[in-house]
Amino acid sequence: MNCRVCGGSFTQPLWIRHTTWHRCVGCGSDSAEIGYRPELYNHPLFREAEHELAVQGFANVVNLTKKYAIGKRLLDVGCYDGVGMEALQREQFETYGFDVNPYSRSEVVTIAERFRASLWDRPFDVLVSCEELEHVEEFREHLDEFHAALVYTGLLVIQTPTPLTDVSHSRFESFYSAGHIQLFSERMLDAVVTSHGFLPIEHYVTEGTQCAAFRRI
Fold first, then answer.
1. Which helix (H) or strand (E) holds 31?
2. Is 3 helix (H, G, I), strand (E, B) or coil?
3. Of 16-20, 37-41, 109-113, which has the strongest mean pLDDT?
């Protein structure tokens, strides 16, 4: 199969328990053979995760947001049960949420089948996509909508898994879960996002997860 990220045809198969993945020889990103299944996330395993541990998972996102945000009106895309919104509210951000799944617990979450900037009457100062972009099949269109949903010089913060080579890594199974369809290599995440009207600010990788900040232009 072709790489979902760059479109390249030279991929090597990676057999994972849930499905077959392919690693792109050209860009280093990984692609799954199956598409996103939102029903997988309506499960106690995800909804009943230990609360404070879940909040801590947003530490990188919160740090970059605090460091580079100009305004305080923020949208968390793929907010799920609102734990990330809570982490950002603790830092005095005016938070709103979006998700495709109808079991979000927050009252300020918009639910729709697809993300559209037109769902809100005015743009946001900050948009956060935490553990979300790896689920989106039409991610290029998704990034265009991110651009439209932000004010000029608005901040975009993306956290998403990176491809792994160590099968003994503690998060190997979760990174290559049935709900993920692509894992961006570090250089391809930068390349893809900047091609949709953003400037890279900061990008780092820790334990297989990358977190990056971009400025909308």
1. strand 30-32
2. coil
3. 109-113
